[in-house]
Amino acid sequence: MADDLQKLESWLAPLLHKLEPAQSRQLAREVARNVRKTNQQSMAAQQSPDAEAWEPRKPRARDAKGKLRQGPMFRKLRNAKHLKALAFRDAAVVQFVGRAERLARVHHFGLRDFVKPGGAEYDYPARPLIGITQEQIEQISDLILTHLTAS
């Protein structure tokens, strides 16, 4: 995967350097939004970016009526408020920000963390939240080529 990104970067670098700074930022913004949207969709589907289903979470205690209150994982975390698409002249970045970054890191890498502050610790299973697939690399290539031919 990293090799594919390196190949894409080396192939596009000479073309992208010909763009004006504003055009480069606009293109980076489009790429970042595209990647964020795809990652949000995979999180909503409860799967990693490469379409592998996440390990389901442990059942929680029932509420007063005996119903489980579990909804989809990371419902709030995938909002644009927490998952930012940033654009620079030479980079498009998708990242979690603020307190959400810590939570996302724990789940993405499957680290050990407190269930609640001062409470029990738990080894969370790895649930990759952000990534890029070969299909996305092709979509990004097409997006960049479309942008370059329109300029």
What do these coordinates show?
This protein has 151 residues and is mainly α. It has helices spanning 2-16, 21-44, 99-109, 134-150, and strands spanning 83-87, 92-96, 112-114, 121-123. A two-stranded antiparallel sheet has the order 1-2. A hairpin with a 6-residue loop joins strand 3 and strand 4. The model has no long low-confidence stretch (mean pLDDT 87).
Structural topology:
Elements (H helix, E strand, L loop, with lengths): L1 H15 L4 H24 L38 E5 L4 E5 L2 H11 L2 E3 L6 E3 L10 H17 L1
Antiparallel strand pairs: 1-2, 3-4
Features of this protein?
two-stranded antiparallel ribbon; two-stranded antiparallel sheet; mainly alpha
Q: Could you describe the largest sheet, including whether it forms a barrel? A: 2 strands, antiparallel
Annotation, overall tally of beta strands: 4
Order of helices and strands: HHEEHEEH
Number of helices: 4
Residues in β-strands, percent: 5-15%
The largest beta-sheet arranges its strands as: 1-2
Molecular shape: elongated
